[in-house]
């Protein structure tokens, strides 16, 4: 249930990836970098109940900072994950 609708705004989003390391930055809001966990290749978690994907890559949150709308979240050095995204408009 949503108790209070927070304002939205348009901001630039920067995304980069390099050899199993992924970064997303929204200036003055968030900076997240995750690095995939390797064994004999990328380690995957399958059949998970996650809203983005049923298959997630296991990763470490190299850096993970969020601060917006009086909320702050710090997850650096902890768990992380990533997944392929298939964009579609219908």
Rounded to an integer, what's the Rg over CA atoms? 15 Å
**Fraction in helix:** under 10%
Mass-distribution shape: globular
**How far from one another are the termini?**
27 Å
State the helix count: 0
* Mean pLDDT over the full residue set: 86
Which regions have little confidence, pLDDT < 50, spanning 5+ residues?
Answer: none
SSE order, one letter for each helix or strand: EEEEEEE
- Percentage beta strand: over 45%
Biggest beta-sheet profile: 7 strands, antiparallel
Secondary-structure class: mainly beta
Q: How many DSSP-defined strands?
A: 7
Please give a structural write-up.
The chain has a domain at 34-84. Strands 1, 2, 3, 4, 5, 6 and 7 form a 7-stranded antiparallel sheet that branches. The model has no long low-confidence stretch (mean pLDDT 86). Strand 2 (21-26) and strand 3 (30-36) form a beta hairpin. It is 0% helix and 48% strand. The radius of gyration is 15 Å and the shape is globular. With 90 residues, it is mainly β. It is built from no helices and 7 strands.
Describe the protein's topology.
Elements: E1 14-18, E2 21-26, E3 30-36, E4 44-46, E5 55-68, E6 71-74, E7 79-82
Antiparallel strand pairs: 1-2, 2-3, 3-5, 4-5, 5-6, 5-7
């Amino acid at each position: 249930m949503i108790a209070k609708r927070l304002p939205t705004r348009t901001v630039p989003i920067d995304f980069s990836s390099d050899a199993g390391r992924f970064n997303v930055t929204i200036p003055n809001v968030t900076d997240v970098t995750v690095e995939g966990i390797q064994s004999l290749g990328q380690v995957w978690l399958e059949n998970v109940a996650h809203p983005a994907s049923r298959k997630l890559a296991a990763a470490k949150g190299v850096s993970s900072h969020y601060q917006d709308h009086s909320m702050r979240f710090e997850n650096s050095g902890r768990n992380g994950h990533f997944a392929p995204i298939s964009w579609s408009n219908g």
